[in-house]
């Protein structure tokens, strides 16, 4: 209780100070399992004023087929814990279908989440003697819901978050025939499969599996008294589980996912201390507890296969570690799986700083897993934006401890995600390569950098939208363009969405930059330009602007206008337009160049193939 008192006190202090709760406080909030405490936290956070760049603002509407109840407070707390600052717009009771049919919600929400219960799909009265008729009714209700949702999305440019519905015990137990139970059970599982399938029909729909989540949690789904008395179909525990799943979706779509997993070795990736027991004495594979450590390595490898960058952070001698990783027959992770290996006796916080500098990523991109309370505490104190995961206690819980929070969630995997571990390993090689040159320009010339630029294709929309959501440092205006907005711009003759890919002697970096441009009345306006931090320092941003200037010139534009709006996290981009040859105009944050007379700003060490686009000349 003292911990909860301290937690709530810290949240109240943040509200009073008009500041975002500190990262460590948010992580503690995310770990609270008592829904009553999370409800209190949600009420406290309702008074949080705009907290600046530390939290990503999000406008979310909640529509429900039932009473919303405490879901509002639980959802707010879950969203703040993931790094967003929500404005919640609550639909009126009994207006679920009407709101979807109308296709408009006051407040222009970014996300609409729907709280569903079984009464929406079941008739008020049904016959236990006709399970096939009941199954047909459920299927018909889903078809009606599907039609409403897809029509709503045609009118409202928002993300929709839905969930599967647990099979109600009353429905199951009302049937005394096992055969009938099977028919109705099939129909209900088909309903949930159809709900999950909605995500394949429109990329703006995400469906979380609440039914599966509740099957894995020790919480009751239903409080019968609250259900009958207040039309509240779910317990606080079930609503908290749903709120956290919805918050994970929002965090992923807002670009708040983490990219790097830094791992200890002794009693984390293997059992035992290598320096004490030697390679042959490690617990790895076989029976408990060795199977737990091997399962963790398998889980980590699966994360790497999906684009998570691995960093080794271990206090050990490097030679024995390299030998164990390379030669141990039960080892799943090998030396080449790690983009950075910091195996030494330096403080782990310092090693993580070095890894962040090597990868050119912020601390907020890192998750650190270690069995030592001292090491975790030191990293949390020195690098508060790094998420810290405990690997102590029973090793049987290692995989769940790592995966449960959903640190690395993304809306969908892109080609760049799948290539990311290799890309960042190449980045580390570039860092080593650069040490052999007398000047940075000599190094840049030796890289033989090539930039490929063209209007966004349908295959690239997902990656470009991901860049918009996840790029904070070189993000000139902070304006976010999701998949729907990027797709719309790519098909509009008066607008242009462009992608920029980079390759050099170490390999293909993939799409690392994007620009969204309005091209009306012979005046081109760069609404936003973003560049991945992993290619900072190579002049790629100037190559991008040079390409845009050339395109504007070819199209006969008489002016090209760039914008810079400080966000608190994009100071690295301050002054960029002037460095690119633009002149400040009378309006704050606006810069102009005449394409017909603008000198090139393409760095001499960068080349790109010429491309053309009939829509713009």
UniProtKB/TrEMBL annotation:
Membrane-spanning intervals of the chain: none
Taxonomic superkingdom: Bacteria
Sequence ranges assigned to domain N-acetyltransferase in this UniProt record: 451-609
Gene3D superfamilies: 3.40.630.30, HAD superfamily/HAD-like (3.40.50.1000), SGNH hydrolase (3.40.50.1110)
This protein's name: HAD-IIIC family phosphatase
């Amino acid at each position: 209780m003292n911990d909860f008192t301290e937690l709530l006190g810290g949240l109240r202090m943040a509200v009073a100070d008009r500041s975002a709760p500190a990262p460590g406080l948010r992580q503690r909030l995310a770990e609270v399992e008592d829904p009553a405490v999370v409800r209190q936290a949600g009420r406290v956070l309702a008074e949080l004023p705009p907290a600046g760049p530390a939290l990503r603002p999000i406008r979310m509407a909640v529509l429900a087929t039932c009473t919303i109840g405490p879901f509002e407070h639980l959802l707010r707390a879950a969203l703040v814990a993931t790094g967003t600052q929500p404005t919640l717009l609550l639909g009126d009771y009994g207006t679920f279908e009407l709101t979807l049919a109308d296709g408009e919600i006051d407040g222009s929400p970014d996300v609409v989440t729907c709280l569903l219960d079984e009464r929406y799909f079941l008739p008020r009265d049904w016959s236990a003697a006709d399970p096939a008729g009941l199954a047909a009714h459920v299927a018909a209700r889903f078809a009606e819901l599907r039609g409403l949702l897809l029509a709503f999305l045609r009118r409202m440019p928002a993300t929709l978050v839905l969930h599967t519905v647990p099979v109600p015990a009353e429905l199951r137990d009302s049937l005394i025939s096992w055969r009938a139970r099977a028919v109705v059970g099939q129909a209900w599982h088909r309903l949930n499969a159809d709900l999950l399938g909605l995500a394949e029909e429109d990329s703006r729909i995400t469906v979380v599996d609440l039914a599966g989540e509740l099957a894995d949690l020790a919480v009751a789904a239903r409080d019968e008294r609250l259900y009958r008395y207040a039309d509240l179909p779910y317990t606080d525990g079930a609503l908290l589980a749903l709120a956290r799943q919805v918050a994970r979706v929002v965090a992923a779509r807002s670009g708040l996912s983490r990219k790097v997993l830094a791992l200890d070795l002794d009693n984390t990736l293997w059992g035992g201390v290598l320096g004490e027991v030697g390679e042959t004495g490690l617990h790895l594979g076989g029976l408990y507890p060795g199977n737990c450590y091997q399962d963790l390595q398998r889980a980590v490898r699966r994360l790497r296969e999906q684009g998570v960058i691995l960093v080794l952070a271990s206090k050990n001698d490097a030679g024995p570690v390299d030998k164990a990783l390379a030669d141990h027959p039960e080892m799943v992770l090998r030396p080449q799986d790690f983009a950075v290996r910091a195996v030494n006796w330096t403080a782990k916080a310092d090693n993580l700083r070095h890894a962040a500098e090597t990868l050119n990523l912020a601390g907020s991109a890192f998750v650190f897993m270690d069995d030592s309370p001292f090491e975790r505490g030191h990293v949390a104190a020195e690098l508060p934006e790094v998420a810290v995961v405990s690997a102590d206690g029973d090793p049987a819980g290692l995989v769940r401890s790592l995966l449960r929070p959903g640190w690395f969630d993304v809306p969908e995997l892109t080609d760049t995600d799948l290539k990311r571990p290799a890309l960042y390993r190449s980045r580390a090689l570039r860092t080593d390569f650069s040490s052999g040159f007398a000047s940075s320009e000599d190094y840049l010339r030796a890289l033989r950098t090539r930039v490929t630029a063209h209007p966004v294709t349908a295959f690239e929309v997902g990656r470009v939208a991901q860049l918009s959501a996840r790029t904070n440092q070189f993000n000139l205006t902070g304006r976010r363009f999701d998949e729907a907005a990027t797709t719309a711009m790519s098909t509009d003759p008066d607008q242009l969405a462009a992608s920029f890919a980079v390759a050099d002697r170490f390999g293909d970096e993939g799409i690392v930059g994007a620009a969204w441009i309005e091209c009306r009345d012979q005046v081109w306006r760069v609404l936003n330009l973003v560049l991945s931090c992993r290619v900072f320092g190579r002049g790629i941003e100037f190559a991008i602007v040079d390409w845009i200037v050339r395109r504007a010139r070819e199209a006969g534009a008489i002016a090209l206008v760039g914008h810079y709006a400080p966000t608190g996290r994009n100071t690295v981009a301050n002054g960029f337009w002037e460095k690119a040859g633009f002149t400040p105009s009378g309006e704050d944050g606006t810069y102009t160049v005449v394409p017909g007379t603008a000198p090139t700003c393409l760095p001499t060490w960068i080349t790109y193939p010429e491309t053309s686009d009939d829509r713009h000349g």
